[in-house]
Amino acid sequence: LAAGGGEDAELLDAFLGAIYPSMAAGYAGRLAAASPAADPPVVRALQRVLADLDGVRREGALVAGGLPAPSPRRRRAVEEALGRSGGVFGPIGAGVIGD
Predict the structure, then answer these.
(1) Which run of H or of E encompasses 82?
(2) pLDDT (0 to 100) of residue 32
(3) pLDDT: is 83 or 95 the higher one?
(4) Does the pLDDT of residue 40 top 70, yes or no?
(5) Distance of alpha carbon 95 from alpha carbon 12, whole angstroms
(6) 13 in Cβ contact with 76 (< 8 Å)
(7) Average pLDDT value for residue range 32-41
(8) The pTM is what?
(9) Rg (CA), the chain
(10) Within 2-94, where are the H helices?
(11) How far apart, in whole angstroms, are the C-alpha atoms of residue 12 and residue 45?
(12) Segment 40-47 long-range contacts (CB within 8 Å, at least 24 positions apart)
């Protein structure tokens, strides 16, 4: 990855710019829907996952900073697919969690 860029750089760009943000939004949505009183282990787990994902995104940005600028085509394709599907985890709403 660090040697050439190209498709690897496009893939990293898609993860950093589309997939990871969608994952963070999905986890944040589930965290907002969780009850701190009824679901403390779930709340703690989601908070940890969000913190870990933030760390992965920061580290990925450091790697990406050393690569040639990628073409945005793969990121756009991933963003479009995520938009059509409701995000990495699909839509969240009443009756969705636990069904």
Answers:
(1) helix 73-85
(2) 92
(3) 83
(4) yes
(5) 34
(6) no
(7) 90
(8) 0.77
(9) 16
(10) 7-14, 20-33, 40-65, 73-85
(11) 26
(12) none
